[in-house]
Amino acid sequence: MAKSVKGKGAYSLAFVRLFSFLVKMGNNFNKLRVRFGLRRMSRNPGNVSDWEAIDRFTELIPEMKYYNRSDALYQIRLRALANGYKNLGQWLQRVSSDPEDLRELKENLTFVGSHFFRGDVWPTLKRQLENMLSVRDKEKINVWCAGCSNGKEVYSVLMLLSDLVPLDKVSLLATDYNREMLRQCEAGVYSLRTIDEIPLRYWPFTEKYNEERKTKKDFSHLFQFRFVSRLRELVQTRLVNLLMDDYPRGFDLILCRNVIKFFENDSKRKVQERLADSVNPGGIIVVSDEIEREGFPDPESLGLTRVGNSCVYIKSAQI
Ligand SMILES: C[S@@+](CC[C@H](N)C(=O)[O-])C[C@H]1O[C@@H](n2cnc3c(N)ncnc32)[C@H](O)[C@@H]1O
With a 6 A CB cut-off, is 242 part of the ligand 1 pocket? Predict the structure, then answer.
């Protein structure tokens, strides 16, 4: 299977790379347009209602107190613009009168983007998984992706695990606070241009899929791929707000990357303590990613040992 993929691989890869390049150019242009709009909105000191609206948003969304305020406000502004509102006061009015809009806004207080095999943590994680598997005799490996976004991290870790254990030994819980992200994670359908982020040897885990054509303008969705059912069926999704809800427990591996950084300091600490509680003795926690290097400030107090300078932590087997 891997050989035939390699044979066709050169042409497919060249095509996908050209396609990705063109789409990325288009996306960058769109990002510039949004940023330009944002700057104009926030640089308008005469527009008092914008500033009043910010206070009102803080009252309307009590959860904001758990988040890094400037990031949360940035997201609110971004969503206002994306919905066609240049004035925050008008956006506030719409959101306050529509519970569905309010819920959607609450679920989008952070950036939700993700990539396959994001960051350079994967070789370190693979080595630690090998170590863990060499000293254990448990039947199942329980994995939790906390703040899983659209599932790219979920499928990345499943593909990595497929190198180490039969996949029927793996059970994976993917949680997020954003329903749309969980829906995408379950569907396991992604734009073909992102397949380039997945090493070629894992491509047999994907299949062509282009039923969900979106708008004529958005070429990125004309071509899609989907993970095969063997992988999708391993994923269980659940709505879990890491700031408010009970945490599931008993995991051998927890990934909670690029999530905690959006929380304010007290919440960061509480979430870290609770994650350390949810992992089994001898288990592994991965936080943040290598680029940000934001980790546990005091891992020993939680019974964790950091692997080198990475964002991978091992829980003491004695606890
Ligand atoms: C930047 S994405 C990170 C996705 C993935 N972990 C990665 O590293 O690529 C952050 C995710 O955290 C989720 N999130 C934000 N606040 C949350 C909360 N309070 N509880 C659970 N998930 C949350 C967002 O919905 C989003 O999907």
Answer: yes
Buried b (16+ CB within 10 A) or exposed e, 243-265: eeeebeeebbbbbbbbbbbbbee
- The Cα–Cα gap between 315 and 144 comes to 15
- Where does the chain hold its CATH 3.40.50.150 domain(s)? 122-315
Question: Cα angle vertex 127, ends 126, 133, to 5°?
Answer: 85
The per-residue pLDDT string of the chain (319 residues; one tens digit each, 9 = 90 and over) reads 444 555 666 776 677 677 667 766 665 665 555 555 555 554 443 354 566 777 888 889 988 889 988 888 888 988 899 889 888 888 888 999 999 999 999 999 999 999 999 998 999 999 999 999 998 777 899 999 999 999 999 999 999 999 999 999 999 999 999 999 999 999 999 998 899 999 999 999 999 887 655 555 656 556 899 999 999 999 999 999 999 999 999 999 999 999 999 999 899 999 999 999 999 999 999 998 766 667 788 899 999 999 998 999 999 987 6
Q: Which residues of 32-62 are buried (b: 16+ CB within 10 A; e: fewer)?
A: eeeeebeeebeeeeebeebeebeebbeeebe
Q: Which of 160, 215, 166, 158 is nearest to 185 (CA)?
A: 158
CATH T-level fold of 122-315: Rossmann fold (3.40.50)
Tell me how far apart the alpha carbons of residues 73 and 50 are, in angstroms, rounded to a whole number: 11
Q: How far is the CA of 149 from the centre of ligand 1 (A)?
A: 5
Q: Is the CB of 243 under 6 A from ligand 1?
A: yes
